[in-house]
TrEMBL record, chains A, B:
A Gene Ontology BP annotation from the UniProt entry: negative regulation of DNA-templated transcription
GO MF annotation list: DNA binding; DNA-binding transcription factor activity
Identification of the protein by name: GntR family transcriptional regulator
Record-linked SMART domains: HTH_GNTR, UTRA
Organism for this UniProt entry: Actinomadura barringtoniae
Domain of life, per lineage: Bacteria
Keywords: DNA-binding, Transcription, Transcription regulation
Length: 233, 233
DNA sequence: AAGTGGTCTAGACCACTTT
DNA sequence: AAGTGGTCTAGACCACTTC
């Protein structure tokens, strides 16, 4: 199970094994005790605690003194559109408006951190909440990270889930800029709002292990949408 | 220095001592080595590492293998308006438009987590960037937390700094909602924009040890302002 | 009473940087 | 060569929960 000869430290090997176990378990499930893990993997308790500590920081496990360790809710993944709408009590749906694969120009390459001219997948979508238009989105994904994305992706499904399940890309950080202003005619039409109506312009990048995995420009109807953020120092 | 009889664990006592040291040191300063701290405070290396580990997670310290431990940049405090503007390359200033102390109505009490009728300080400010109006803000602070806030606060100075320095209130979490829409006449006038110009409406709450310390409604000119966010899962 | 996580000790060897 | 952080061991006692 744990190979002392492998260059990866024992506690990280153990963490990976625990993560695999956790992912198959329901929330609040009790996992084996620290001392039991020591016996089972033949490592010291310090090593077990080092592995567990990290999972606790990552909010995958909770310690319960006197009881044991239980599986915690998955950490806040980046808000998918569907989750976002459900939190507001609305149903979410999505219409694909088109896909293509282009070569990155200088600006796009700069934002994605790829070489200029590198192939990039583009996904154009209309987001609906309770059946009414809420946003239009244009997503860019470096083709090197997900070569046959459009063949493997379930149309209308979550882009994040496809990246994670089909290509093993788990996003870990991101950045976002938010602007507001009047909609252009091109934007107003699919959103079903008057020309010049107020919209949010969002630009979001999400990163996986230091590389930009996804760049999305969204235009949200400001009359229907409100952004909620939790802040941590 | 470290008292084994006190109920607080040694590693937390040590963490507090280190935090005090760190706060007086410039960024990238080298602090004593782990083994030196063991000798100096007469604790085991495990205990030292436990204290340091926490400060590393909190981004107050960085470890440099082979070198030592250095003071890291202070963690992202909540963006003060001044910091926000400086990041955009603009100078920031502030004009106090008035202060008063009121009794919380039901809505305000709900948002602040105080009892209805509890006294609340209100601070009304105009924010300027490069000398031009950028935002108007209305801040509410439970008077119980900062009784003589208006006597002790430096006019035009940072509210957060005053709460921290004068009342020991350090904010640890927060939430924020962002809307966009046309400005009302009341808002447009001090911001020096046309009636109906696009503005951001921000509502931010910051918490200190579980209690709301501050509630601020801001109206930002959308033609000059852009929101930047770092995202973590 | 037995088991759990929480804290703590006193060592050890490694890869790395500095001198 | 000396010092540093990174990893690891094999114990220990405590407060707590469960039986």
């Amino acid at each position: 199970m744990i190979d002392p000869s492998v260059p990866l430290p024992k506690y990280l090997q153990l963490r990976a094994l625990l993560l695999d176990t956790i992912s198959r378990l329901p929330m609040d499930a009790l996992i084996p005790s620290e001392r039991e893990l020591c016996r089972r993997f033949n490592v010291s308790r310090t090593t077990v605690r080092q592995a567990v500590d990290q999972l606790v920081v990552e909010e995958r496990l909770r310690r319960v003194p006197g009881k044991g360790m239980v599986v915690a809710r998955p950490p806040n993944r980046f808000q998918s559109f569907a989750d976002d709408m459900h939190a507001l009590g609305m149903s979410a749906s999505c219409v694909d408006l088109g896909t293509q694969t282009i070569e990155a120009d200088a600006d796009l390459a700069d934002l994605l951190g790829t070489a200029p001219g590198a192939p990039v997948h583009v996904l154009h979508r209309l987001r609906l909440a309770d059946g009414q238009p809420m946003a239009v989105e244009r997503s860019y994904i470096p083709a090197a990270l997900a070569p046959d994305l459009f063949e493997r992706r379930r149309p209308g499904g979550s882009l994040f889930k496809a990246l994670e399940r089909e290509f093993g890309i788990v996003t870990d950080t991101g950045d976002q800029t938010i602007e507001a202003g009047p909609a252009t005619d091109n934007e107003a039409e699919p959103l079903d709002i008057p020309q010049g109506g107020t919209v949010f312009h969002l630009r979001r990048r999400t990163f996986s292990r230091g590389a930009c995995a996804e760049l999305t420009f969204s235009t949200y109807r400001a009359d229907r949408y409100r952004i909620h953020l939790g802040l941590k120092p």
